Amino acid sequence: xxxxxxxxxxxxxxxxxxxxxxxxxxxxxxxxxxxxxxxxxxxxxxxxxxxxxxxxxxxxxxxxxxxxxxxxxxxxxxxxxxxxxxxxxxxxxxxxxxxxxxxxxxxxxxxxxxxxxxxxxxxxxxxxxxxxxxxxx
Length: 137
What we know:
By secondary structure, the chain is of the alpha+beta class. It is built from two helices and six strands. The chain has helices at 47-61, 81-89; strands at 12-17, 20-26, 30-38, 66-73, 94-101, 104-112. It has a six-stranded mixed sheet with strand order 1-2-3-4-6-5, with helices on one face.
């Protein structure tokens, strides 16, 4: 587990599991992932993917229908922009923008929760009935 003194900003919340944590802001329908970090020891074991999937599933149960984030990539960073965007794309995020600021590349991504179409609970027999009998005159 990452040992760090975390200071949360205004309206920020902490989602913490053994493998890592997510700092986020949430309103009624959307959730901004502000910081996502896993323990650096078990790299490439799927812990990060599992953590963020559990987080999003929990938030979806609370009514969140959109997730968004932005991430910085530096030239000497651990991950390349391709690795970072691929990770989030596999989780359903799409890149919405990118810009360079102060020698760092910043990417913006979002993910909408797919809402199933409502299925009618009952269909009346005559809703789809069509009279195809010949006219008898």
